[in-house]
Amino acid sequence: MSDKLDLLQKFYDRVWVSGAVEEASGFFGISTEASGLLPDLAVGAREFHEFVAALLEMVELSQIKIEKAVEQGDWLAVVATYDATVRATRQRITGNGMVMVQIENGRFVEAYNCIDFLGLFEKVGLVPENALALCMAGQRLR
């Protein structure tokens, strides 16, 4: 595993799987912002902590696995899958996402995320099953 892949996997394992949200800042540069987590909003360190804490209230992650990775210069792009348990129902779920990060001096300085939140929220029970298909058919979610 390359240094970049190792850093990202450690981040996933510590912050997301172990729930050590307070350790996230050790992975980020001073002015790092993550895009793609919330629509039209770049998330800084404080907001990231709140974002992770909110998601971890809904699910308990048991694993995040990097499935595919591409490195170029100081950039790393990955496709990852996760295994989790919905806290409210104890149902086991899986999902996926992609991230592209720029890494300098062992820290993330830019991050672009693309996570299937609609699928996650379906599995957690916050939106109806087949929500994407319903929306594509022109139905409003109520």
Instruction: Please state how the strands of the largest beta sheet are arranged side by side.
Output: 2-1-6-5-4-3
By CATH, the architecture is named: Roll
Shape: globular
Taking the sheet with the most strands, its summary is:
6 strands, mixed
Radius of gyration: 16 Å
Unreliable residue stretches = none
The amount of beta strand, in percent, is 35-45%
Which CATH class? Alpha Beta
Query: What is the share of helical residues?
Result: 25-40%
Number of strands: 6
Total number of domains: 1
Could you state the order of secondary-structure elements as H and E? Answer: HEEHEEEEHH
Number of helices: 4
**What's the CATH topology name?**
Nuclear Transport Factor 2, Chain: A
Termini separation (Å)? 45 Å
List keywords for this structure.
142 residues; alpha+beta; Nuclear Transport Factor 2, Chain: A; six-stranded mixed sheet; 4 helices; globular
